[in-house]
Amino acid sequence: MRKIITLIIVSIVVFSCKKTADSAPADVTASDAKLKTLVTVAYPSDTAQLNNMITLNATATYLLKSDVKANSNGYITKMTIKLADRVGKGSVLFGLQTKEARALGNTINKLDKSFRFNGATTVVSPATGYVAMLNHQIGDYVQDGEVLANITDASSFGFVVDVPYEYLQIIKSKGSLPITLPDNTVLQGRIAKVMPSVDAVSQTVKVLLQVPNNNIPENLIGTISFSKTSAYGLSVPKMAVVSDETQSSFWVMKLINDTTAVKTEITKGVETDKYIQIKSGNLTTKDRVIISGNFGLSDTATVKIQKP
Question: Is residue 60 a contact partner of residue 156, using CB atoms and an 8 Å limit?
């Protein structure tokens, strides 16, 4: 009986060891496959021109708006404009009749019809532009000097840009800048004025860019772009660069063979929306860097290159 029990126990042990031995290679293979991260790679370039572009908002503005004022006390008898109408300098906008003329005009005309007294005066536009505001209508009684309407001065139209003072000399040296509107229309803006004051908080200077007034509405926001710096040098795709949480150190994952990537620290230079200049770091144009799948990879990570 003991021999039978011993034989059963030995058989169980041998079977268990065999099963473990048979399953071990499969587990190791699965573990190795799991550690490989699928990545795509690219080569650094030394021929790309890197322009560090600065983009600022530009707001359409009329710097000068003229008030149309009544030239006497009286009633508005005629009005030739409506809101948003374009008017020329010197064109008649309003007709006024004094209170005395309204009261005495008919009586005097009855006494002498040849006198043709009506006490009417006209108010003309002080500038060429658009009617931005109307304060009265026909029949209203107004005082001498009261504002009847507001006219934008077309000659003062332009786009105002708040330029950081550090970029002011770059702007001045260009003379003109393209302005891109929301509908992708591009206008060439000429630098007309630089305001002689700086905002105390933002340290920006207001710069006026004049453009042909092609019925552009006031307060429309466009953008201007200009190059802060331009450089050639070794660069990598922007997606290849990884940083720590504080963005105080940067690195790329470089392949030393087809399956191993090592962490290579770099110093960044000029940065664009597609490329980052490498000012220092152990990289050449023959090295392969990971551009996708590199996030979270440890040093000497095992990877698998994804075929295009």
Answer: no
How far apart CA 281 and CA 287 sit, in angstroms, is 12
Rounded to the nearest 10 degrees, how much is the dihedral formed by the CA atoms of 112, 115, 119, 123?
A: 160
Say which residue the tokens 């041998």 belong to.
14
Tokens encoding 66 = 């003229």
Other beta carbons within 10 angstroms of residue 238's beta carbon come to 13
| Helix (H/G/I), strand (E/B), else coil: 215 | coil
H or E element in which residue 232 lies? strand 221-232
Per-residue pLDDT of the chain (308 residues; tens, 9 = 90+): 555 555 555 455 555 555 444 544 444 444 444 468 899 999 998 887 777 788 999 999 998 898 999 988 889 999 999 998 999 999 999 999 887 777 665 565 555 555 555 668 899 999 988 999 998 999 899 999 999 999 998 888 999 999 999 999 988 888 889 999 999 999 999 999 999 999 999 999 999 999 976 678 889 999 999 887 666 779 999 999 999 888 889 999 999 998 999 999 999 888 877 888 898 888 999 999 999 988 888 888 899 998 76
Please name the amino acid found at residue 145: G
pTM: 0.59
Cα 93 to Cα 89: distance, rounded to the nearest angstrom: 10
Instruction: Tell me how many degrees the CA angle 87-71-131 measures, rounded to the nearest 5.
Output: 25
**Contact (Cβ atoms closer than 8 angstroms) between residue 128 and residue 154:** yes
Three-state SS annotation for 131-184: EEEECCCCCCEECCCCEEEEEECHHHEEEEEEEEHHHHHHHHHHCEEEEECCCC
